[in-house]
Design goal:
Layout: E1 9-13, E2 26-30, E3 39-43, H1 46-49, E4 61-63, E5 74-78, E6 92-96, E7 99-100, H2 112-119, H3 122-128, H4 139-142, H5 150-153, H6 164-176, H7 183-190, E8 194-195, H8 200-217, H9 222-229, H10 233-243, H11 247-265, E9 279-280, H12 282-287
Parallel strand pairs: 1-7
Antiparallel strand pairs: 1-4, 2-3, 5-6, 8-9
Helix pairs in contact: 2-6, 6-7, 6-8, 8-11, 9-11
């Protein structure tokens, strides 16, 4: 009697499956009607993303044995496919340890979680879209863009307690760790294996705090923040259709002003969002 060999398969992530701070943007399916580009995304709804066990389903899988042994439990990368005319030019995300297609270059660096806050910020995107001429943002372009140095991110937080990295880390975890596949990242950033709720409204507030922080860290004046935000007409149009105002810009400016007050007075900035986890793992619950 022979014993069957069981092979474990890992998903092969493509750029179309991910969005900024979101490893579950879309499933991929083969279209029966498309003559070209038959592999198409099917975007997950907010209801689907509210399930911490729901993952994006790829069209291709890879044997676990072909994935490099030295890869960490979670990865970070950015979409190579882009355009300066898109709503956003740079979209970066964390994702579980898996196979990754060449359309999604990986970031291999210390502090890669904090690099997500830089790559996904409006101030970084503003510079990036002036450098992108085609449909791809290649590594040679990325290496020329003005990312903040680790020393800046690890410096004392001028609007709060501790370091800037300590202020940013739980926000990255809140945005990135919305399913159990990302629990290792949550544990690394917060010390606890946990999953955060998928709440579009709360996510918008957290991203506004990060963007305001990035504008301060880059030394951008308030008038220039106002100007840069108006350089994203698609974001403005979508906001006005959904909310009747340019909500993203208003939230960022309000947080920017509150942070400036904290910097001037020494009274720490009070967050506008409560980043409580959706659920903590049973092991953590027993030990607490």
């Amino acid at each position: 009697m022979t014993t069957a060999t069981v092979e474990r398969m890992l998903p092969l992530y493509e750029a179309k499956m991910l969005d900024a701070y979101d490893h579950r943007d879309a499933d991929v399916f083969k279209s029966a009607t498309a003559e070209k580009r038959q592999n198409q995304p099917r975007y997950l709804s907010d209801l689907e993303k509210s399930d911490p066990f729901r993952e994006a389903i790829p069209i291709a899988w890879v044997r676990e044995e072909v994935v490099r042994d030295d890869l960490p439990l979670w990865l970070a990368g950015f979409s190579d496919v882009t355009s300066s005319t898109n709503e956003r030019t740079v979209k970066a995300a964390a994702l579980p340890r898996a196979g990754v297609a060449n359309s999604y270059p990986l970031i291999v660096a210390d502090g890669r979680a904090l690099l997500l806050t830089v790559f996904n910020s409006f101030v970084f995107d503003y510079v990036a879209r002036m450098s992108v001429a085609g449909l791809h943002i290649n590594f040679f372009l990325v290496k020329q863009l003005p990312a903040l140095a680790p020393s800046v991110l690890n410096s004392p937080c001028s609007w709060g307690h501790g370091s800037t990295a300590e202020w940013l880390s739980p926000r990255v975890a809140y945005l990135s760790c919305t399913s159990w596949s990302m629990a290792p990242m949550a544990e690394e950033l917060t010390g606890t294996r946990q999953v955060f709720p998928w709440s579009p409204d709360q996510r918008e507030l957290v991203r506004a705090e990060i963007d305001a922080a990035m504008f301060h860290l880059y030394g951008v004046s308030r008038d220039d923040v106002d100007y840069i935000m108006d350089a994203f007409p698609s974001v403005k149009k979508d906001d006005e259709m959904a909310h009747g105002e340019y909500l993203t810009k208003r939230l960022i400016l309000e947080v920017y002003d509150a942070m400036q007050t904290a910097i001037d007075t020494g009274v720490p900035y009070q967050s506008i969002v409560d980043m409580q986890p959706l659920v903590i793992s049973p092991d953590e619950r027993r030990s607490s």
